[in-house]
Amino acid sequence: MFSLFLKHGEPAIDEQAVLTAIRHAESLSRAEIRVHLAAKMKNNNAFEEARHVFAKLGMHRTELRNGVLILVCFREKKFAILGDIGIHQYVTDVFWETVKAEMQELLKQEKYTEAICHGIQRAGEKLQLHFPAGNHNPDELRNEISRD
């Protein structure tokens, strides 16, 4: 097991488990999922911060506009889930808020890796439903955890 120790005494997460969850979700759909760990938020609003990071990572450049970003800032105890317009047209804000609440419960229990993997899994379920993998399933974005 490989753990990523975050800056400033923040909790460790199992980076390999997160990457495995991303690869699995992406293997079942034609979508892209990224996780971004923010050392400090530049914007007080986690959703606005996620929008900024989403653009910075070029996640809007996927063919079907179906990328999903999970942004976590452990230091400020904030996180957000952001889906591009391709997936958002099929799911409502209620779905994203439900996933966020489920993740929040795991984060409160200090199950950091599980919370992130749960968000990936739940997003992956919707992505698979609306963008199933086919013969053409390019990996448009690198499968990595980005950081700032």
Question: What would the keywords be for this entry?
Answer:
alpha/beta, four-stranded mixed beta sheet, two-stranded antiparallel ribbon, 5 helices
Q: Give the helix tally.
A: 5
Low-confidence segments: 1-7
Structural class: alpha/beta
How many structural domains does the protein architecture include?
A: 1
Strand content: 15-25%
C-alpha end-to-end distance: 23 Å
Order of helices and strands: EEHEHEEHHHE
Q: Tell me, what's the shape?
A: globular
Largest sheet: spatial strand order: 5-4-3-6
Average pLDDT taken over every residue = 90
Helical fraction: 40-55%
Q: Determine and state the CATH class.
A: Alpha Beta
- Tell me about the largest β-sheet: 4 strands, mixed
In total, the number of strands is 6
Radius of gyration: 14 Å
